[in-house]
Amino acid sequence: MFNNKILKVMPYVLGVLILVLITIMIILKVSDSAPEEEKTEKTETVVSDLNKDEEVPGSEAETEKTADEKAGEKQEEKNTEVKENAEAEDEPAGSDLVQNETAQENDGGTGNEEDKTVDIEPTPSATPSPTPIPELIYEYKDDYIETKDDVNLRVGPSTDTDIVVNLKTGKRLKRTGYNEKWTRVIYEDKECYIYTPLVTGVFEEPSEDGNAVGSEQTGTGTASLTTGVAAPNGFIVCIDPGHQTKGNSEKEPLGPGSSEMKAKVSSGTSGNTSGYPEYKLNLTVSLKLRDELVARGYTVIMTRDINDVNISNSERAKIAADAGAQAFIRVHANSSTDTSVNGVETICMTNENKYNAELYGASRKLSDAVLDHVVASTGAKKRYVWETDTMTGINWAEGPVTILEMGYMSNKDEEEKLLDDDYQNKIVLGVADGIDEYFSE
Ligand SMILES: [Zn+2]
After folding, report:
1. Is the separation of the CB atoms in 401 and 388 below 8 Å?
2. What is the pLDDT of residues 224-240, one digit of tens each?
3. 346 and 257 in one domain?
4. 295 & 407 share domain
5. Is there a domain that residue 196 lies in?
6. Ligand 1 centre and the CA of 137: distance in Å?
7. 282 C-alpha vs ligand 1 centroid, how far in Å?
């Protein structure tokens, strides 16, 4: 009865229940899959945005995977960027190339390890590297490398360390250590470091003339002047060794017809350490230059060949003009209250000079040629051609003129070099090469 009734209805009830369940499941499945698709789309959008714009690290939208990938990519790009800068200029800004503080060197396989600590200034702008860069281990080497032109040798394996020398032209140097970032070399008996991408080749032997590669008249090695007297080449050069034993503070016009007056000739500077006077150095180098130019066929006139004279700057220009000099080379040495300042510069008039602007083009060309060649022959720092109308001896010139400032007697290292016979020869060869180039064009 009751039980029978239930039993009769049961299949229908079960049927309805199954239908309801199926319906619920279908509805649930549909409502669940719709947001899933949306979510996926959203993630893809975030990822592609990140690819376009790297300025959103740490954005909440980033999924864990995306964040890791981005960090890796960014680090890689950053490293490439720094490396390229370093290759181009050897001066990557705030270099984080060498972030490790300790560079271990394997000293000739003897088992002795020498720790070299290099202080690296923190770079606040740099993104902290998530993974530490491994220590720089130097592979021991006993051979020779050649460098690119215009590279710096440094005291330590970091662009934050001092520059030992700037090599204007490629050199062959003894190599004692290597890793992919820095190469350890010997320059003038000193251990130095060069950024490894600036090395162009590896060799078994030193070059024939010791270390120098290419022209003998560059950077390292000794420089000898040309001897003898060549047949005249038709060019007349006047050399003016700057200053004299005693300056003359009497006045003379700054230029022809000028009412502005300036001391006839000043006493010049002197070596900070040695006290050696500029006028003596100027004459020593000028006499060497005279001999070199004569040996190359030039006719040379000197404004003075002794120190104890009394010749004003305008009178010196007159000597050059009277001789018909096609190049008037005034030899000086520089000085600065900042004892770190060093390097070579040349001086000529501006192209608006009131007295002889027509000589500007030739004088500038002469100044450039002399500057470039002296820098190449000495390895000194290149400053610039200073154009100024404040020099009496330039304003009174009637032919192409340049003042050579050979270097700074106020800088200890440069003073020492300027007083060195061999370095003076390099200067002389550079000036002579510059004059050759000037007349060859
Ligand atoms: Zn001077």
Report:
1. no
2. 898 888 889 999 999 99
3. yes
4. yes
5. yes
6. 49
7. 8
User: Are residues 310 and 408 both part of a single domain?
Assistant: yes
Q: Are residues 112 and 160 in the same domain?
A: yes
Identify whether residues 293 and 367 lie together within a single domain. yes
Give the total number of structural domains in the chain: 2
For residues 170 and 272, membership in a common domain is answered with no
User: Is there a contact between 259 and 253 (Cβ–Cβ < 8 Å)?
Assistant: yes
Kindly report the average pLDDT of the chain as a whole number.
Answer: 77
CA–centroid distance, 166 to ligand 1, in Å, is 26
Is residue 57 a part of any domain in this protein?
no
SS3 content of the chain, % helix, strand, coil (to 5): 35, 25, 40
The predicted pLDDT at position 178 comes to 87
For the chain, report the end-to-end CA distance as a whole number of angstroms. 129
pLDDT on residue 106: 32
Q: Tokens 């050199």 label which residue?
A: 171
The predicted-structure confidence for 252-282, as pLDDT tens digits, reads as follows 999 999 999 999 999 999 999 999 999 999 9
Q: How many angstroms separate the alpha carbon of residue 225 from the centre of ligand 1?
A: 24
Q: For residue 7, what pLDDT band results from cuts at 50, 70 and 90?
A: low
Distance CA 283, CA 108 (A): 49
Q: Which amino acid appears at position 172 of this protein?
A: R
Q: Around ion ligand 1, which residues have CB less than 5 A away?
A: 242, 268, 332
* Domain containing residue 160: CATH number: 2.30.30.40
Mean pLDDT for 380-393 is 97
- CA–CA separation, 24 and 250 (whole Å): 113
Residue 114's domain comprises: 107-118+134-203
Among 338, 402, 399, 414, residue whose Cα is nearest residue 373: 402
> pTM of the prediction?
0.54
Query: The tokens 């309805």 sit on which residue?
Result: 16
pLDDT score recorded for residue 222: 77
Structure tokens given for 38 = 């949306």
